[in-house]
């Protein structure tokens, strides 16, 4: 049950964050990195390592935000 709540909250954060994306590559990289780190930490906590999840999610979110238009 706890894992389902974490996944729902993570998805909600990602959807709301995507709605508030910036208009420049730099602002999208920052917002993507922050959202990715939060979601990665939430999902990583389910597997027992929130720090690694936050690092991976933050890095992927930052790169994804920087390369999108």
Structural account:
The chain is mostly helical and 69 residues long. It is built from three helices and no strands. It has helices at residues 2-19, 25-47, 50-67. The radius of gyration is 12 Å and the shape is flat.
Sum this structure up briefly:
With 69 residues, the chain is mainly alpha-helical.
Topology, please?
Blueprint: H1 2-19, H2 25-47, H3 50-67
Helix pairs in contact: 1-2, 2-3
What is the subunit organization of this protein?
Answer: single chain
> Radius of gyration, Cα only, in angstroms?
12 Å
Query: How many beta-strand segments?
Result: 0
What order do the SSEs take from the amino end to the carboxyl end, as H and E?
HHH
Report the β-strand fraction as a percent range: under 5%
Report the major sheet: none
Number of helices: 3
Poorly predicted ranges: none
Mean pLDDT: 77
Helix percentage range: over 70%
Structural class computed from helices and strand pairing: mainly alpha
Cα separation of the termini: 37 Å
Shape: flat
């Amino acid at each position: 049950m706890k894992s389902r709540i974490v996944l729902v909250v993570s998805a909600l954060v990602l959807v709301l964050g995507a709605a508030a994306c910036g208009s420049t590559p730099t602002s999208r990289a920052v917002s993507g990195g922050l959202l990715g780190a939060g979601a990665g930490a939430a999902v990583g906590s389910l597997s027992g390592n929130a720090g690694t999840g936050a690092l991976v999610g933050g890095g992927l979110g930052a790169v994804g935000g920087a390369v999108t238009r």
